[in-house]
Specification:
Strand content: 5-15%
């Protein structure tokens, strides 16, 4: 368990510490699905778990008056916890409390929320363990204005950590309702939260190291972004605001987290990159408008989002995670190769140089190629769309020498499949785990950034090691 701030009333309260201690003590007893098997070897006694559960519910009840805006949720949470215990600690069901929690309906800058859910943490813990998280909403007036007037996204909630249990002492930077254990999945969710402090701190740590390793000279405003946590956080909330809404806008948008839409991993990579490049284009426009209208703050926000997208996509994404269908890594590799092929960046004499103006225009050009792919895809069968997307990616990235997909349609298992579902599965199974291996540039960079990236596990907005607060 981590407490990141004793300045808030809730984080300093003894009940918060009792709550997290009890959650941490209960978590090891849970199975992957969140249940507790008391017949398993080494399982605790039922009475011991009952005592921990009472400690958790008592703590939540004691903290509730400090969070009156969450009254309905916290009452429902206690009821769900008590029902879980009364039912013998089977697979937990927190649907009632999940439906009662509505942070998007009360986006107030600095407002604190407490959540206790059995959940997995994306890019963190895959098991549905009980977690306790205390966080604050980030909703400055300038961001609220942009969301209301330009980038409507009523479900988006940017947040920062105050305290958390073990599932978030990981690489997870999101709090999504889809991760909570429930008896049935609601037709739709009304919110999605992203920890901008973790994103910003991770970005600063990796970017500052990459810049040093690559000998890249940064403009003064880019250095300010990398050096200042608050500036980086504000940059990420704007980037995320635009990125998140883009999934439901444009030609052929799709949710990359919907497993039912099974596709080759480069389709997910292109979708995530499309959303980032859309944010990039909007940021270019914001910068231009700010300069035209004398709005220095708007221009600064727009410019910073451009830097952040370039640096995170070029330096962190390609070398983070394993090489098994790493779709975010693929998007970063594609952006680098595209900029390199169009002479917007160069790697010469072991130094990276970027032509900043050319990089802006070239990045927008890549967005156009992806947008054209999507638009043309409306008139294609799904498998033909996948092939067209593969051709786009392989124009700039070299496939694995053993790739079946690289040999063209004649090598793929189109024949003998009884239905479209079987064909889709066969085509996806033909994709290699590392269909587009790292280039020599990224192989070298990966080795030098490996420890830095590993060190960002569990990082928050509180002074990351080696980076100024």
């Amino acid at each position: 368990m981590k407490n990141l701030s004793s300045a808030t009333t809730v984080a300093a309260h003894p009940a918060w510490h009792r709550l997290t201690a009890a959650v941490e003590a209960l978590r090891p007893a849970q199975s992957k699905d969140g249940s507790i098997d008391f017949a398993a070897e080494g399982a605790p006694a039922r009475s011991a778990v009952d005592a921990l559960l009472r400690q958790i519910t008592d703590a939540v009840t004691e903290l509730a008056p400090l969070l009156p805006h969450d009254e309905a949720y916290l009452q429902a949470c206690v009821a769900d916890l008590e029902r879980w215990g009364a039912d013998g600690y089977g697979v937990p069901d927190f649907l009632d409390s999940l439906l009662a929690f509505d942070p998007a309906g009360q986006r107030v800058d600095g407002r604190e929320h407490l959540v206790v859910f059995p959940m997995y943490t994306q890019n963190g813990n895959p098991d549905r363990n009980l977690e306790a998280v205390l966080f604050s909403v980030v909703w400055p007036d300038w961001l609220a204005g942009l969301e209301a007037e330009r980038f409507d996204n009523p479900m988006f909630v940017p947040i920062t950590f105050t305290g958390f249990t073990s599932g978030y002492d990981t690489n997870s930077a999101v709090l999504f309702p889809e991760t909570v254990a429930v008896r049935e999945v609601p037709e739709r969710f009304s919110w999605g939260a992203i920890f901008c402090d973790r994103e910003a701190a991770r970005f600063r740590a990796v970017t500052s190291s990459a810049v040093d390793i690559l000998g890249l000279e940064l403009p003064a405003d880019a250095r300010d972004l990398v050096e200042d946590q608050q500036t980086a956080q504000q940059t990420f909330v704007l980037w995320d605001l635009i990125h998140d809404r883009t999934h439901s806008h444009g030609d052929l948008p799709f949710d990359p987290f919907m497993i039912k839409q099974r596709s080759p991993f480069w389709m997910y990579g292109l979708e995530e990159l499309r959303c980032d490049l859309t944010a990039f284009r909007e940021a270019v426009q914001l910068e231009a408008e700010g300069r035209r209208d004398g709005d220095a703050e708007l221009a600064r926000h727009g410019r910073n989002v451009q830097y952040a997208i370039l640096f995170d996509r070029l330096f962190r994404f390609p070398v983070t995670g394993n090489r098994v269908r790493n779709y975010d890594g693929l998007g970063g590799q594609l952006l680098f190769a595209y900029l390199h092929k169009h002479d917007a960046l160069r790697w010469t004499d072991n130094r990276l140089t970027i032509d900043w103006q050319r990089a802006v225009e070239t990045t927008k050009q890549l967005w156009t190629e992806i947008a054209d792919l999507y638009r043309d895809g409306i008139d294609r069968p799904k498998t033909a769309h996948w092939l067209a997307a593969y051709q786009l990616v392989s124009t700039y990235l070299t496939p694995h020498p053993a790739s079946t997909w690289a040999q063209g349609p004649q090598a793929l298992p189109f024949e003998g499949q009884p239905d479209a579902r079987s064909l889709n599965k066969a085509l996806c199974d033909a994709v290699l785990p590392d269909e587009f291996p790292l280039s020599m540039f990224y192989e070298a960079l990966s080795k030098k950034l490996r420890d830095v990236i590993a060190g960002t596990k569990g990082i928050t907005g509180s002074a990351p090691e080696g980076v100024a607060a």
